[in-house]
Amino acid sequence: MENNTLSQDEYSDIKIPHFNNEKEYTKEIEEIMELTKDISADWRKRESAIKRLGGIMLSNFGFQPAFIKSFNNKICLNLSVQLVDLRSSLMKDACRIAVLAAITYNEAIESAVEKLISPLVLFKLVGSANKVISDTGSSCVLEIIKCVESGKIIGRIHEQSKSKCNTIKVRASQQLHYIVSNYKQNTISKNASQIEEFIYHTTHDANNDVRAGGRKVFLKYLEVSQSAAVKLMATFEHSVQKTINDELRDIDQGSHKNSSVNKYYSNFENGETSTSSTTGINSPNVSNFSQWKNKNISISKNEVTSTNKVLSNNFSKTFTPSLPNTVKTTNSVVSISNTQSKRKNSNHFESSPDRNGTNSLSKSINTSKQFSKTEAKSLASKMEKLF
User: Fold this and answer.
1) Is there a single domain that holds both residue 77 and residue 175?
2) In angstroms, rounded to a whole number, what is the distance separating the alpha carbons of residues 275 and 353?
3) DSSP 359
4) Neighbouring C-alpha atoms within 13 Å toward the C-beta of 352
């Protein structure tokens, strides 16, 4: 996780209060809670109350267990009310205080963070038609994610994969990309099912930007947890697999040739199956990446080739044509005309199409044997079975 520090310029307007006793501190908290419980009070008073709340966080009383517990249970609910206020200046200050709380308390406010990062609070801002509000809400979520490593956050982001708002899904992809890149492997493994379900929904979404975001998360997941990513990709539709493979080739041919994703891709292209990867995770049990990525429900190229070989071998054994000067059939003998026999280098019939588009050679049966009626019927039945 990133070790975020407070910026003096960003929080220069927040004054740290000095309380002579606990009674003064309690009175201040009660006034703040009363002003921020709804949006009935004047917006300037509510904005001032939010800044006063930030000052308490930076004071000595802000680090007491009682305040942290109160923040998780009650204060975060009042803060949520102010976050969804339509006034952009008030909303921005509420976002600043939410980020300040994450920087100050980290995982200690995990419960409060789960309430803040929800479809009714911060993700409601992300889905706003107002670009300023949407960008501010998205930045707030990302800054909180950087300070608080929690599986509950992954659960909240996972919920957004089924949102009807494309902006929310795109921003959620960016946030999950950061999580997969920076969270501990243990946290990723525990929440793998939610991550994989998010990836599946977004990579198969109707919107192009959402699909692109989902593929970026998948490529990062492939780098972090290769075996799980390969199993996940096997469930993708063929068109999605093809697009991902194309992007892997672009990366492989680009400037990032030393990344573990590209090493992973090139190893499988070359048929290398080492038991350990650069990240220390076992490689998937697939003979080579080319065979795996081309495998789908429809018949493969190798199967088509092998089938053609079997058919051609059976055909050559059963029906091997030769072109003698005289070919006997069951009812008549077809002789080569004098004109044909006098043609230069004409030991065989010429295969020129007739008016019906068929070959003149197909009008005569060219075999080295003299067939009886029984043999002819047997040959015909074998030909039907082959084709």
Assistant:
1) no
2) 59
3) B
4) 6
Pair of tokens at residue 277? 């990867």
Residues in contact with 10: Cβ distance below 8 Å, sequence separation at least 6, in sequence order = 96
Residue 158 lies in a domain: yes
Note down the domain range covering 17: 1-148
Collapsed DSSP state (helix, strand, coil) of residue 46: helix
Residue with structure tokens 């004047």? 42
pLDDT tens digits, one per residue of 311-359: 344 434 433 333 344 333 334 333 333 444 444 444 443 444 444 444 4
Q: How far apart are CA 247 and CA 240, in angstroms?
A: 11
What are the tens digits of pLDDT across the range 125-171? 999 999 999 999 999 999 999 999 999 999 999 999 999 999 999 99
CA-based nearest residue to 230, from 291, 182, 172: 291
At 385, the pLDDT band (50, 70, 90 cuts) reads low
Q: What is the pLDDT of residue 107?
A: 94
| Ramachandran category for residue 106: left, alpha or beta (phi over 0 → left; psi -120 to 50 → alpha) | left
Q: Where are the beta strands (DSSP E) in the chain?
A: 326-328, 333-335
Helices (H) and strands (E) in the chain, counts: 20, 2
Say yes or no: 15 and 64 in one domain: yes
Structure-block tokens of residue 56: 């308490």
Q: Are strands 326-328 and 333-335 parallel, antiparallel or unpaired?
A: antiparallel
